[in-house]
Amino acid sequence: MRSAAVRLDNGKDALFAQIGSFLAAQGLDPSPAHYSFAHAALTDPAIGSAVARLTDDGVRLSRGDIEQLGGSVVPRRTQRTVATPPDDQTMRLVAETQAQVDGFADLMRSIRQETSGFGRDLQESAAAIGRQPQIAGIDEIARITGAMVTRIRDAEVRLARATAETDTLRAKLGEAQAQARRDPLTGLANRLSFEEAFAAPVDATAPRCLAIADVDHFKRFNDEHGHGVGDRVLSAIGRGLEQACTGQLVARYGGEEFAVLMGGVPLTDATTMLNDAREALAARQFRDRATGAALRRITLSAGVVSVRPGETLGAALARADELLYAAKADGRDRVIAG
């Protein structure tokens, strides 16, 4: 929230959508207590103004903030940390399962198309037979035909239900595959997604750059202020990198390390983007939302290289890492290109 008060769109559905967006932005589960607080934040101008002021620098509300504003925080059932990217075998199994479900869904839909109307046609035929009293055993034929129509209708209902369930499963598998490529803390691409993007076919004539950025003295920062504050800072840094490197792939590569893959960007422009992100971060004044205390200045060091034709990810990363360590050794809070 960046305005003092949120202007609600007309209609209950719009309010529900805004509440969902608010909960997602603040990392809150859709529990009744959180829903009630989000509703108040969106409809009460005083609470809305306070929330806008507290989140103006992009940091999420803390538990203390929410409680001071009259809300309450329900602990998550599971505490999530940095996810370990699935291994290659797991991803292959997921891809194979997705392909099987896709094939089954297509098969089910094809069967429905081919058999649609069969029950209706059979019922019409049964009615036509019933109008022929001269046919021997017409009553028995009508009974058998009627039973067949009933069974076919039941089968059509089950087939429709199975098709719908298969479509739902396919959607959930697709969502699971997408989530497997996102970092749960920052919402950025994770290492797996970054590696896949690097391996994807590209125009060999277009420039491409790779950068590794690392938060300076982040372990000490976590020790001083706790992992909760550190997590919020990492999220803010990730958003800052995305803003400075618009249109490029920014990933949380592990811990306090971020990777950026820039397509169609020469090394000079890539260096400028990273320096913009670094300077913006160094100029920010972070605060501990629980205590209101100002946090020490946070800086970023980075190494950026121009990817060579045919170069592997490992080789490009090794060169960028060397420059990153050079930036650290040279005093930190700087970007070195090579």
Provide an overview of this structure.
With 338 residues, the chain is of the alpha+beta class. The protein folds into 3 domains: 12-68, no CATH class; 88-179; 191-337, Reverse transcriptase/Diguanylate cyclase domain (Alpha-Beta Plaits, 2-Layer Sandwich), CATH 3.30.70.270. It is built from 12 helices and 5 strands. The protein has helices at 12-26, 32-43, 45-54, 63-68, 88-115, 118-130, 138-179, 191-199, 218-225, 227-244, 267-283, 313-329, and strands at residues 208-215, 249-254, 257-263, 300-306, 335-337. The protein has a 5-stranded mixed sheet, sandwiched between helices. Strand 4 (300-306), helix 12 and strand 5 (335-337) form a beta-alpha-beta unit. Helix 1 packs across helix 2, helix 6 (118-130) packs antiparallel against helix 7 and helix 9 packs across helix 10.
Second-tier CATH architecture of the largest domain: 2-Layer Sandwich
Order of helices and strands: HHHHHHHHEHHEEHEHE
Percent of residues in helices comes to: 55-70%
Q: Give the strand order of the largest sheet, numbering strands 1, 2, ... along the chain.
A: 2-3-1-4-5
| Alpha-carbon Rg, integer | 29 Å
At the fourth level of CATH, the homologous superfamily of the largest domain is Reverse transcriptase/Diguanylate cyclase domain
